[in-house]
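ERR on first pass: missing label on line 2. Operator R.T. fixed the label and resubmitted. Corrected input:
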Amino acid sequence: GQNIDQPTEMTATEGAIVQINCTYQTSGFNGLFWYQQHAGEAPTFLSYNVLDGLEEKGRFSSFLSRSKGYSYLLLKELQMKDSASYLCAVTDSNYQLIWGAGTKLIIKP
Amino acid sequence: GAVVSQHPSWVICKSGTSVKIECRSLDFQATTMFWYRQFPKQSLMLMATSNEGSKATYEQGVEKDKFLINHASLTLSTLTVTSAHPEDSSFYICSARTLAGGNYEQYFGPGTRLTVT
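pass 2 clean. output:
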């Protein structure tokens, strides 16, 4: 079966750094996405990785290791507005998105 | 670029009535559109995938006669919830995919909150 695992909830402090991990087992792999979703809103795109390595985009970075079926999203200089759910999703061999359950990130002052 | 709109943003209807939700890609042609449902504090659940001009592919457990999907053009897909019941109350989100750039990114609409009384 296809499976994506990420922690249910994480807590971090404003100004700090947090890493959200995602492991996956899918039939084929055509890329991994990270989305941010605030409560009551639709997801918004954060990053896309298809090759191994680190992609940096401002305060957010995403890492991928295809051999390990592993990715992480790194958020630096945390702000209160970063409190949201972070969804990991993998495109499988049929180019369908397989979604993780999401990680709820709570930022404390 | 890559903006997806949904209409209405929220709707309240009585049990037994039908509700239509529109999803439009405003500045690109969407080869595929997806319909998701999300219950409070849960992740997105894919309901169906539709390609322009062909019948939608429904996920297991989703009743195709209850959730009618029409994808008549490359910029418009509609979801009709027929004979809605209170358990259909949820957040419905559409997304559209373009193959441009080869990354198969999905662009999400803002969602429609349906409340059935």
